Amino acid sequence: MSVDLKFKFFKSAMKLAMERTGHGAALGLKLTKVEKGLIEMIFPYKKEVIGNPITGVVHGGVIVSLLDTCCGCAAITVAGFATVTPTMDLRLDYMQPAEPEKPINISAKVYKNTSNVVFCRGVAWQSDMENPIAHCVATFMKLSKKK
Amino acid sequence: MDERDHKLTNFSSKDFELIAIRSREIGSPQAIIDAIPYGKFIGVEASVIENEIQYTMDRKKTNIGNPSLPAIHGGVIGGFLELASAIESIYVLEINAVPKVVDFSIDYLRPGRYKKMYASCTVLRQGRKLINVSSNAWQENKKIPVATARCHFLVP
User: What is the pTM of this model?
Assistant: First the structure.
């Protein structure tokens, strides 16, 4: 019971941190699902982040930011409150260009959690999750906040 | 802003081609960045220093990832390096279109402090179909990199 309450608090704290501060707020992303080891987000289309002015497709860097945020959040949910999880590396494969003026869905999952490293996988998709825009794998370090 | 919006809706591949050619003529890759809205969003600028393009990203509140440190968002560093790699291939390889990115891989070496960030790129190989660009980001000292990335583009 206490664990559930703790997680509930954690959930809202994470939502606040991601949606109201810094780059997350600038992008205007929304967390739609927070579970242990699973995060889902939605990014509404924004004119300011266009990467190809001819087609209006968002820049690849936005997808990097979204997947990094999403995978990072998923890593924190399994690592616990007292840890920070800096990204070690991230690899992204672009399968197809995003369609302009449509929101982008992001989903990230932790597929292995070890004592020092968290391994995550994430996808970005628009209408069909089986036909994604991009797929990424990212690894995160587990560092204790207390020193 | 209105002018920019208007420009975006009527932007053709010919316009981009002219911008790319013009930027090479005047020796300033900044003109290409100005055509890409994402460059302005994260605040990227470019200048040619000793025959090498140096990219800079100013400190910006909207680029913060961790407000308690504060540190620059890892995704922003990724976006910065990806944008720099794209500009490098347009400018150096004389490509007059937006290259399509195939994959992007980044290693974070140190936290990006809330300061100005610099980047430089190297085109490792240009084939008939693919371009491989490697890029580095640093803050105070070029010898102390913050992140290093590698990127593949399809030749348009």
Answer: 0.91
Nearest CA in chain B to A96: B102
Q: Is a pLDDT exceeding 80 seen at residue A6?
A: no
Q: What is the Cα–Cα distance from B80 to B57, expressed in whole angstroms?
A: 8
Cβ of A54 within 8 Å of Cβ of B13? The answer is yes
Q: What CA–CA distance (Å, rounded) separates B67 from B80? A: 19
- Return the CATH number of B2-154, one of 3.40.190.10, 1.10.287.3510, 2.60.40.2380, 3.10.129.10: 3.10.129.10
Q: Which residues of A touch B74 (CB under 8 A)?
A: 68, 72, 86-87, 90
Report CB contact under 8 Å: B106, A21.
Answer: no
CATH of the domain at A96: 3.10.129.10
Alpha carbon of B111: minimum distance to chain A alpha carbons (Å):
8
